[in-house]
Amino acid sequence: MNYIYQRFLEDAEKISFDPEHRKRLNYNIGRYDEQVNRGKDQYQNMELAKRRAANLKHKVINNLDKYLVEFENNFSKRGGKVLWAPNEKDAQREIMHILKKARAQVIVKQKTMVSEELELNELFEKNKREVFETDLGEFIVQLAGEKPYHILTPAMHKSKEDVAKLFHEKFNMPADSKPEQITQFVREKLRGEFIRADVCITGGNFLIADVGAVALTENEGNGLLCMAFPKIHIAIVGIEKLIPSLEDLDLFLPLLAQHGTGQSITVYNNIVFGPRNEFEPDGPEEMYVILLDNRRTELLKFKEQRRALSCIRCGACLNGCPVYRSIGGYTYKTTYSGPVGSVISPHFLGLKEFNHLSFASSLCGKCTEVCPVKIPLHELLLHNRHEAVLKKYTSYPWRTVVTAWKIMMLHRWMIDRPKAGLKNKLIHRFGKKMWGPRRTLPRFAQKSFKQQWKERNP
C-alpha cells in the first residue's frame, strides 16, 4: 500500500467522523442546493441546453489542435502574446521570466484553480515576491496557510467564527467580528494592493477561438480591478477551456452560473481581447495567455476519459457527491477534488499513485446527473479502475480476492455446495477486516433463494 493511499484512508476516516466538519459542509452545501433548485426555473428545457453544451465541448476536445491555433492567431492580432507551457515547470519559468523582465514585486491574483495546480503562491514567496489573493474565500485560505477546499468555494470548511478568529489573530480585529465587517476590512485592504500591483494573474473560464478572447466570470468584481490597474496581465488557462465561438457564451455562462451558485448569471462577466489599445484609458499595457498542457494531452489518449476535459469547473459534482460531503476536499491531496478530480487527477499526477481516488466512490451516479456538460463521471471512474487493474496498480491481495469472487460467480455450484455454517465461518475469517470495523458482516441464510424457490416451485 503506497503512502498516499494510506494517508487518504487515515484522513478520510478522521474527517468523516468529525461531526463539526460534517455539520459545516452539510450546511453550506444545503444552502447551495436550495439556490440551485430555484435557479433551474430559468430553463424551459435544461436537458436540451446540457446536450448542446456537451456536444460543443465534445467537438472542441476532439479538434483541440485546430481551435488552439485559431485562438492563438486571433489573440495575437490584437497585440496579445501566447506562450505554450507543456508542463508545470515550463509555466513557472515563463511567469518568472515575465516578472523579472518587468522587475515586478507585487502580484494580485483573481481566483484561479490552475494557479493552485502550478503552486504559484509558493513560487512567488520563494522568489521574494508579494502575492495577494483577491477573492474573499481565497484570501481567507491564503491567510490560514491552506489550499482551496472546493473548486468554487475555497473556504467552505470554515464557519464564520473560524474566520473571525483568523482575522483576530492576523489583523487584531475583534474576535466576534461579523461577516460584513470582515468583508469591508478585506475590501479596504485590497484596494491599495490593486493600485500598488505590478502584475495581475487570472485564469480563464473560457477561451473563445473565433475572436481570440478570454472570458472571465465572477461575483465580487476583483477580477475587473485586477485587470484595470497593473501594467501586465497574465492569464493562465488549461488548453481544454476552449469554446468555438463568442455566441457560445450565451449557452455556457448561464449553465456555469446556475450549476455553480444557482444564479441566472454571475454578477461580472468580462471578455478580454488583449492589452489596452491607444483609445482605452485603463487596462494592462501587456497581456499574456499561457496555454497549459501539464498532462492534459495524456488524458486525450484515453477514448473515454478524455470526456472529463469538457469540465467547466462549476463544482456541481462535488456538491452532489455523498463521498465529498463526508470526507471534504483536503483528503484528496489534489488540486481538483470530488468526482471530476477522481477522474482527471490520476492522469495528471500518476495513475499508479492516485488510482485509489477512482475507487473512492459509491458510483451512485449523482455526479453524472448534475453535470451541466453531461460528463458520465461515474462511468469514467470505472474506466480508470479498469485501467489501474490492467496495469496491476492495485494491490495483489485485492486482485486475488476479486479474481476468486469472479470465478465463484461464474460457477454457481461453488456458492451453493458449502453449508451456510461453513460459508459464515469463511467470510468471518477472511472478510472481516476488508468489510470494516463499523459494519456488520452479512450472514448466509440456511437456505439460498435458489433452494427456496425450487422447494416452493417444484
Give a structural overview.
By secondary structure, the chain is of the alpha/beta class. It folds into 3 domains: 3-9 and 297-390, Fumarate Reductase Iron-sulfur Protein, Chain B, domain 2 (Orthogonal Bundle), CATH 1.10.1060.10; 43-294, Rossmann fold, CATH 3.40.50; 396-456, no CATH class. It is 54% helix and 10% strand. It has helices at residues 3-16, 19-39, 46-62, 64-77, 88-102, 113-117, 120-126, 136-143, 160-171, 179-196, 222-228, 249-261, 296-300, 316-320, 322-327, 338-349, 351-354, 356-359, 366-370, 377-390, 396-410, 413-416, 420-435, 449-456, and strands at 81-85, 106-109, 130-133, 199-202, 206-208, 213-218, 232-238, 242-243, 268-272, 286-292. The strands form 2 sheets. The chain has a 6-stranded parallel beta sheet, sandwiched between helices. Strands 8-5-6-9 form a 4-stranded mixed beta sheet. β5 and β6 form a beta hairpin. α2 (19-39) packs antiparallel against α12. The longest helix has 21 residues, at 19-39. The protein is globular and about 90 Å long. The N and C termini lie far apart (50 Å). The mean pLDDT is 93.
